């Protein structure tokens, strides 16, 4: 299992585990580096990156790292380490920026998690390998990767609207947008070779860009 993982993916997983463990046992550390609107607006921009290495609990961390392991191998294997890192950190930044924009009138809004970056990697891997199928824990039948990606995004929209838990659902959406855009910029031939998949994955993103501000009033 480990021998098949790219070193950059492994490094990011280890970094997430170590930083999250520190946050589990030291609330002041978590509070200092989590995503919080008022702190970021006042100048602590570093939180837009550090919050992506913190998690609320082991389940939150485990789910994100398992998804990163599954999908990160595809992106790093097909595009190489430099492009993988560009997509990962580009998606992390895009997730934080979208979250900041969406919650800009909520100074005490806070969240943690690598979900924005992982969402970008998921979207990137589906663009690169549209024929992938996934077996989830409690579903015995294979699920097409694009169905998982769109479903993940729809769940994030619901979570963002309901503000479920201390998880950055808005970051999921921003990260998916970042991964989608960055992958197409780095690998533009996908627009012609995987045109249908590009359109399918673009639909929920375009919907969000047009109607995202109206979600809170629904």
User: What percent of residues are in strands?
Assistant: under 5%
| Biggest beta sheet summary | 2 strands, antiparallel
The coarse silhouette is globular
The secondary-structure element order is HHEHHHHEHEEHHHH
Q: Strand order across the biggest sheet?
A: 1-2
Q: Helix coverage percent of residues?
A: 55-70%
Describe it.
The chain has 218 residues and is mainly alpha-helical. The chain has a single domain, classed as Up-down Bundle (Rhomboid-like fold), CATH 1.20.1540. Helices cover 69% and strands 4% of the residues. The protein contains eleven helices and four strands, in the order ααβααααβαββαααα. Strands 1-2 form a two-stranded antiparallel ribbon. β3 (133-134) and β4 form a beta hairpin. The longest helix has 22 residues, at 58-79. It starts with 6 loop residues before the first helix and ends in a 7-residue tail after the last helix.
């Amino acid at each position: 299992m480990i021998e098949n993982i790219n070193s950059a993916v492994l490094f990011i997983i280890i970094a997430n585990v170590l930083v999250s463990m520190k946050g589990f046992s030291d609330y002041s550390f978590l509070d200092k580096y989590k995503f919080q609107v008022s702190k970021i607006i006042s100048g602590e921009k570093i939180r837009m990156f550090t919050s992506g290495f913190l998690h609320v609990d082991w389940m939150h961390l485990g789910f994100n790292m398992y998804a990163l392991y599954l999908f990160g191998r595809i992106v790093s294997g097909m595009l190489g380490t430099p492009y993988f890192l560009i997509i990962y950190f580009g998606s992390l930044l895009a997730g934080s920026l979208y979250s900041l924009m969406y919650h800009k009138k909520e100074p005490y809004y806070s969240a943690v998690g690598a979900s924005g970056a992982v969402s970008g990697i998921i979207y990137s891997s589906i663009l690169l390998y549209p024929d992938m199928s996934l077996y989830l824990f409690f579903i015995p039948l294979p699920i097409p990767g694009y169905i998982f990606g769109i479903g993940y995004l729809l769940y994030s929209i619901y979570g963002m609207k309901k503000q479920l838990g201390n998880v950055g659902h808005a970051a999921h959406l921003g990260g998916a947008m970042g991964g989608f855009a960055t992958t197409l910029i780095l690998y533009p031939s996908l627009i012609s070779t995987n045109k249908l998949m590009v359109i399918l994955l673009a639909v929920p993103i375009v919907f969000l860009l047009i109607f995202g501000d109206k979600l809170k009033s629904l």
